[in-house]
Amino acid sequence: MPFKRKDLLGIRDLEVHEMEHILEVAFSLKEINTRPIKKVPTLRGKTVVHLFYEPSTRTRTSFDIAAKRLSADTFSITASSSSIVKGETALDTLKNLEAMNPDIFIIRHSASGTAQRLAQRTTASVINAGDGMHEHPSQALLDMMTIKERRGRLDGLTILIVGDITHSRVARSNIWGLTRMGARVIACGPPTLIPPNLEEMGAAVSLHLHEVIPEADVIMMLRLQTERQQQMLLPSLREYSVYYGLDGRKLEKARKDVLIMHPGPINRGVEISPEVADGPHSLILDQVANGVAVRMALLYLLGQR
Ligand code: CP
């Protein structure tokens, strides 16, 4: 079934068949990234604009590489090197860039709902590359692709998401997506970092990592989002690490074939130890590689409009 949307704003909006279609297209496009000449003409003549109000390494680079591998023209606006520092609003920036006739905007902003608000004001497609604490849909799709690549399925798996759930748009998008795809999701963290509505979203909750580690097929560790925390929510980083950090000792309790994931950037020694991040169970760099394939799929599908 063709992908009929103008925008990709969140996983919550998507039907299961749409997520499955995006993943199928991503799996088929992934091979392009291993060719000697990593380029196809699919989006020749299309223009992709990256509009990033927050820092990014993985998302911005992989969207840019994805667009270029599909032969789109790209340009990038960051808050620090544009007229945003002179006080231009996000809507004014969007409308001025729209006057140059781009086809797709990739938008990251610290305020939840910004991508949606801007999408309503432009005829170009908008992809949400992370909006505040709300959603990060392309991250959840690349996470689903990475799990599916290793396990062949998502349904019936137990996925443990650990850490700062409250401030994590990655956790929110993954909970919406993975539960809809038939996985069982357990969110685990200290009570101050667990939001109240997780059960309504379909996730189980645990405050005790050591109790739930043995159940997990996949353990997805999250970064503490100190930039979004309004007050002290933890006694200390050291205490957080003792109870909720994943190290070799805690991993001994996990299944022998457990998969370890992290969206990045990693705080080594806080939520994950180097031996686990770089160890044989880790899929962290597979996630990054699949980020290019998933973003190629999204640009390809939205670029067909
Ligand atoms: N996972 C992720 O969104 O990383 P960046 O902030 O580096 O884009």
SSE layout:
Blueprint: H1 16-30, E1 47-52, H2 58-69, E2 73-78, H3 90-98, E3 104-109, H4 114-119, E4 125-131, H5 137-151, E5 158-162, H6 169-180, E6 184-188, H7 198-201, E7 204-206, H8 209-212, E8 218-221, H9 237-244, H10 248-251, E9 259-261, H11 274-277, H12 284-303
Parallel strand pairs: 1-2, 1-3, 3-4, 5-6, 5-8, 6-7, 8-9
Bound molecules: phosphoric acid mono(formamide)ester (CP).
Describe the structure.
- By secondary structure, this protein is of the alpha/beta class.
- It contains twelve helices and nine strands.
- The protein has helices at 16-30, 58-69, 90-98, 114-119, 137-151, 169-180, 198-201, 209-212, 237-244, 248-251, 274-277, 284-303; strands at 47-52, 73-78, 104-109, 125-131, 158-162, 184-188, 204-206, 218-221, 259-261.
- It has a five-stranded parallel sheet with strand order 7-6-5-8-9.
- Helix 2 (58-69) packs across helix 12 (284-303) and helix 5 (137-151) packs across helix 12 (284-303).
- The longest helix is centred in the C-terminal third of the chain and has 20 residues, at 284-303.
- The radius of gyration is 19 Å and the shape is globular.
- The two termini are 14 Å apart.
- The model has no long low-confidence stretch (mean pLDDT 95).
- Bound molecules: phosphoric acid mono(formamide)ester (CP).
